[in-house]
Amino acid sequence: MAINPADVLLDGRVAVVTGGGAGIGRGIATGFAAFGASVAIWEQNPETCEAAAAQIGALGLATDVRDSDAVDAALARTTEELGPVSILVNNAGGVFASPLLDALYRANLRHVLLCTQRVARGMVAAGTGGSVTTVTSIEGVRAAPGYAAYAAAKAGVINYTKTAALELAPHGIRVNALAPDITLTEGIAAIAPPGSEARFGNTVPMGRPGHVDEMARAAVFLASDMASYITGQTIHVDGGTHAAGGWYHHPQTGEYSLGPTD
Questions:
Q1: pLDDT at 106
Q2: Residue 150 appears among annotated catalytic residues
Q3: Does pLDDT of 146 surpass 70?
Q4: Residue 194 above 80 pLDDT?
Q5: Among the options 147, 150, 248, 256, which is catalytic?
């Protein structure tokens, strides 16, 4: 089986990106469109949804992906206007202050189960297979003091990815996850104090924070035929921070250090 450069193209495929109005989701939606997919953005914020869809040439549907009726409606309209969905990226979610732990669960795990279930049913019915990718976080594999509910939800995504991969493999549906660490989204850039990029670089073996386009490249790969034998995997797109396990560049010497230093 020879490698064909065309295997990375997504021509003729319909892709849904949840939370695609900004940040990593918008980058992934842009990447999918660039590689030929017809893209639907399901985004809770109607303004960013409309802006991203207009820029990319996508179908923008203001959707609360935590709500089953809203997901069903968005899927029906996406299928009607673009065709059957063969690519799903569960990107919506995030960490935020909340007095109710359930809110973090619904924002970071429940919608993953819900959207995957609904879209996978269509893939199975069509008999064409497909790809599901969920954006988790490095916090799913390491402790996150003060963010226990968020970290637990992200860990749940990683295990769910493995189980869903096994259940859906007989239907030709691949299920994987992407785990970023420090990625310079618009939100982080807006709140980061001056000099933060250099400080972020000290914690990353590759010496810099990531870019949303680098997440998009990994997402395009997983959705394409180049990844036809990859399922149940979590790929850490993080410049090596997961592999580092706590080692970081000393801000004065640049040498690797473990734990506090003078």
A1: 61
A2: yes
A3: yes
A4: no
A5: 150
Angle, helix 111-126 to helix 68-82, in steps of 10 degrees: 40
What's residue 99's pLDDT?
45
- Residue 196 CA to residue 213 CA, distance in Å, equals 20
Residue with tokens 């660490």: 181
Supply 148's token pair.
Answer: 């226990």
pLDDT, mean of residues 134-152: 88
- pLDDT interval class at 251 (50, 70, 90): confident
Residues 6+ apart with CB under 8 A from 250: 202, 256, 257, 261
> Whole-prediction pTM value?
0.92
